């Protein structure tokens, strides 16, 4: 049975909030005790006072218009009432392992994206990290560029004063971006492809103290080429560890590597993420080189789930339990508080005869969050936490990843078999053969099992028929998708999944969900 949240009569009551949507160390409970002040240990008192002070010192952001009176036609991704609270553009950080992807995100947004114990121990990203940042520009024409660009966390007030000595200007909000921090490890390629499904642009990190290209640098670049990401900024990181001549030589090797790819003509910025050198130059490029994508606010909302959580602490009382939280990015449409929602494919099981069944999950939106900022409605772009009344056990530990969330009865069909028009890469990326050349990609064979990335869903797919460039795939778990959607194909090579090509969905066998 779904855990009931109750309604939130006032803004003081804290709605369900995902731990992944807020910076570490900010997880104290700000609510007063329900039955009057309860005696607390001194250390707890200190903590709660600090939490209350932090909440009080947070700047007030402009109120959003009421969802009922919202004029959808007048909204744009740069409308001040939207951009002050919610990010409207997703930027992925991609590149080889340990080239500084998470460090760059931390330098720009001030948010540490490595949050889990096993990630912190090994100092690598395993799950998709995310962080929001506001990029401002000083309105004083005398303020030199790129110093006039500055980035802050997403709960910063609207117009802070310029921080350059002697400048009288005020920072004006230019962009509000969400960073999707992808893992660089080859084993985690499917996680990276899930992240690529929601990206509008990418920062490609290349460490200057290693030869270019490294295996995952080329593999990630091919992946975003498949996803048709045209806007890329290349960051030559770790220049503080190199001499000037070495940096110039490495710069030329980057140029050579990107020639003829989707990143050809992309700006290359030398930076040091640890020392925060040239971060202002990245901020300038985020505002000038990456256009805000055109969004469709009128269609039915579709949110791709890339993370999901159970936000209840162990040992919570029954009346304190909160429903599950789904984290992801809206592709089209607008989600509002109180909307009746459906999540597909939902709970997948098999009947007595072994046939697959799907039972979509139905619920209502209780709260919407963009990191620490609460929202009355959420628009496409940026990463959103959707608080629901779903049983939290269905959401814990990313169980909803790959599902699609939308209005009840308005979601795409669920497919169990797909007919695809596929295209294979000529050579394998990130795998060298004995003679140092890149291995060739073998043709698809009948009955082989591939991994298919559909949106943020990664599922196994058995090839049941193949002819010329058309293949029929039987999916291990059903996927909610649409015809003409682009999918990535990976094959297991030497115990790792490797990207071998992509495909477009032409037709498929649908599964009728059970709605009782």
TrEMBL record:
The keyword Hydrolase applies. SUPFAM superfamilies: EF-Tu/eEF-1alpha/eIF2-gamma C-terminal domain, P-loop containing nucleoside triphosphate hydrolases, Translation proteins. Transmembrane segments: none annotated. Residues 1-75 are annotated as: Disordered. Its EC number is 3.6.5.3. PANTHER family: EUKARYOTIC TRANSLATION INITIATION FACTOR 2 SUBUNIT 3 FAMILY MEMBER, EUKARYOTIC TRANSLATION INITIATION FACTOR 2 SUBUNIT 3-RELATED. This is Eukaryotic translation initiation factor 2 subunit gamma. The gene is GCD11.
